[in-house]
Protein: Baseplate J protein
Amino acid sequence: MYEDQTFEVLLERMLDRVPEGMDKREGSILYDALSPAAAEMAQMYIELDVNNNLNFADTATGEYLERCIAWSGIQRRPASKAQLRGLFYNSSGELLDVPLGSRFSLELLNYKAVEKLSPGTYRLESETAGVDGNRYFGALLPVDYIPELARGEIAALLIPGDDVEDDEALRQRYFDSARRPATSGNKYHYMEWALKIVGVGGARVFPLWNGPKTVKVIIVDSEILPASELLVSKVQQYIDPLPGQGEGQAPVGAVVTVAPAAGKNISVSAKVTLAPGYVLQTVNDQFKGILENYRKQKAFAATYVSQSVIGALLLSTEGVVDYTELRLNGGAGNVLLNEAEVLMFGIVALEV
Structure:
């Protein structure tokens, strides 16, 4: 808004107010006296422009974004802790119960047993909030002595932990809420209810999927992967624990079924021409990372996987000069996804 209010413009305007006949050249007393004031005013306009942007949801950041949208009731999501399945065994290889609250370590993180799921099987919670708790699988070491315990392991990620919601994600939730009002049990209301559960990364709603007054909600976790049974159960309990009875968020008479999205595995293969000095395995690993970033951005919003987009991602991989024979699931062309499916990449194999 104030981009044209530069030091030069301000100084020139100030000098224009000086009566004719007085020395206004650079180095003169008047010029040297007015220059610092012009510099300070130019800085003031810069700060005024920045502060102006902090008052609107489309340009505000950090605390100012939270304050801009506070009226809507939408708040920044705090970091959440990963929930994992832990298995524990005695020296005979039989499943062993451990005390609730027992603490275990793996690599640099600690986990606590918070719920017994079945004999010898527990829900563990990472003591560290954020995505770091999602990364480690394998043998657990008890922090304190537990009688008869021979070994323990993390077997599966139940509900991914998530970092503090960033500005862009918070801004997008606000815009979605404003553009698609959730009210009176409409379609968007079910989406909003599902997304309120920690660990849910996306939801799709299918009205009348099994006849009148039936609603199906398909969800993915915060890693944009098919939701676990535990996460599905949490969403079901929140929205409609007793079908049609109105005991949850859903109105009386609405029978809600919550289900995980189905993973659609897509394999990618191609022959590539490498730039001098690049190794195929390194390039293949980099391409996998690019595909994973693309998957997290598009997985639950995509209705098909474009071969040309995958080709563009391949060309953007460092070390790839060109490619031929690009195949998705062994064929040439796009791969369709239905509304209940979420994109997952399987084998990624590049050749030279």
